[in-house]
């Protein structure tokens, strides 16, 4: 019983921290939650816990933006490709779970994704996508994002860098990320339900996780007014880099 209580406290603290990061930066809830939860559980089990907190916070984020329909029209090829990529990942994960070391390679992919995201964030690297390139680069980014989400439960790579490269206005960018992450979360939920990982118990636990996540978001919004966002972002990306290195080390040494 004491072990179960410790697990509940750990999960609650993870979602408080993940919600705080999203409150300060506008993103990062699923990334932080999955990265920390996988210290105690497989990536897709962690992903099942974040479905409700991620869906609610992302819908809130996209609904607060200025122009949802034009963004939907512009990003529709990418969003549809996210669903395709997640479906492809369902096949890969099913095959990997049937083989020895399936959990290890899933953890390795998660570690590499966190390393890439953390390194890009710390480097401050920015790129721009020409309008003529969106026709093929958007679907490519969507397929890769969906595939990584289906394997790791994290859906920021390469969607977040791609959206940042579209030269959107600040409010449009926040709304675009909310839209992309909402579609990614729903596609992931369908995949988990298909695999039997999204059931009544998982849904109930995910609903409970919304409470500490919301509390963390409120704390993060309070902190955003009292600290330099640039400093917080550097700490955030440095932490992802460390967690990614830990995931890779554990995957390749177990």
TrEMBL record:
It comes from the Bacteria. GO terms for cellular component: plasma membrane. It holds the Pfam family TauE. It is a multi-pass membrane protein. It is found in: Cell membrane. Keywords: Cell membrane, Membrane, Transmembrane, Transmembrane helix, Transport. InterPro entries: TM_pro_TauE-like (IPR002781), TSUP (IPR052017). The chain crosses the membrane at residues 6-39, 46-72, 78-96, 103-125, 137-161, 173-194, 200-219. Belongs to the 4-toluene sulfonate uptake permease (TSUP) (TC 2.A.102) family. This is Probable membrane transporter protein. It comes from Rugamonas aquatica.
């Amino acid at each position: 019983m004491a072990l179960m209580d410790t697990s509940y406290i750990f999960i609650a603290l993870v979602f408080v921290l993940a919600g705080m990061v999203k409150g300060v930066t506008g993103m990062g809830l699923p990334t932080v939650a999955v990265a920390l939860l996988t210290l105690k559980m497989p990536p897709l089990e962690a992903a099942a816990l974040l479905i409700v907190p991620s869906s609610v916070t992302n819908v809130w984020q996209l609904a607060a933006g200025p122009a949802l329909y034009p963004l939907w029209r512009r990003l529709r090829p990418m969003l549809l490709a996210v669903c395709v990529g997640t479906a492809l990942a369902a096949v890969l994960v099913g095959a990997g779970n049937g083989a020895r070391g399936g959990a290890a390679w899933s953890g390795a992919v998660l570690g590499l994704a966190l390393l890439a995201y953390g390194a890009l964030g710390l480097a401050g690297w920015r790129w721009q996508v020409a309008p003529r390139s969106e026709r093929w680069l958007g679907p490519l980014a969507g397929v890769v994002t969906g595939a990584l989400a289906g394997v790791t439960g994290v859906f920021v790579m390469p969607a977040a860098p791609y959206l940042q490269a579209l030269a959107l206005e600040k409010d449009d960018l926040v709304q675009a990320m909310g839209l992309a992450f909402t579609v990614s979360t729903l596609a992931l939920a369908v995949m988990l339900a298909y695999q039997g990982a999204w059931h009544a118990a998982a849904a109930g636990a995910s609903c409970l996780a919304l409470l500490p996540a919301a509390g963390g978001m409120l704390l993060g919004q309070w902190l955003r007014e009292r600290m330099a966002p640039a400093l917080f972002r550097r700490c955030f990306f440095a932490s992802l880099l460390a967690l990614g290195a830990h995931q890779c080390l554990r995957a390749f040494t177990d």
